[in-house]
Amino acid sequence: MSEETGFLARPDGERLAWRRVAGSGPTVVWLGGFRSDMAGTKAEAIARWAAERGRAYVRFDYFGHGESSGDFTQGTITRWREDSLAVLDELTEGPLVLVGSSMGGWISCLAAAVRAERIQAMVLIAPAPDFTEKLMAPEIDAAGREALARDGVWLRSSDYGDPYPITANLLEDGARWSILPGPVPIEAPVRILQGGADPDVPWRHALELAQALNSDDVVFNLIKDGDHRLSRPADIARLLVALDEVCLD
């Protein structure tokens, strides 16, 4: 698989790492999750899919993520939305298929709302719109609220590794980008893959997004025993089937 790599310079001097597969049809763009990166199982699987089918594909790391520069604790939804729009505007041309995982599902919706004329379709995996306000904030205990008020940061426990910092700035900024209960101004076809056993994004939360989208061409695929990552071989196969369906020339 031949993949071009590079860095996209941002106005403040930070750099976004990216990888690109040349090909035809709409450009598929990967928008990863919170604290994730472009080298994950699903992003890599799409890169192989793109190379095999001769499809254009771009993936990147947000500010403070993966190979990109920046301090993760300085990141916000505003910043990561701007990163995504910069990638769309500077690294792609023509129609787009946005593939958003978890937080990337939220960022995809925010980007699609202002680049509607270019969006051919979207594929969302365990989409987490408004997660800062609706999923994360309610779980903060009294000690966490005290830490946020005192230090501006809360260490959130994780099932995937060590606790990680959540800043008051992230929570406050995220609330400004709330899109639920909708309506969400997206008219393009949308395919949603959601695990029924997802401990991070309840399936009803993802379903609320599906119902809020303006598009009538929305398919919600509930994988009853699926977790948040949806990276098992069968889950990856479902993702690639969805891409084959929406990536029409």
From TrEMBL:
It comes from the Bacteria. Gene3D superfamilies: alpha/beta hydrolase. The keyword Transferase does not apply. Keywords: Hydrolase. GO terms for molecular function: hydrolase activity. The keyword Ion transport does not apply. This is Alpha/beta hydrolase. It comes from Phenylobacterium glaciei.
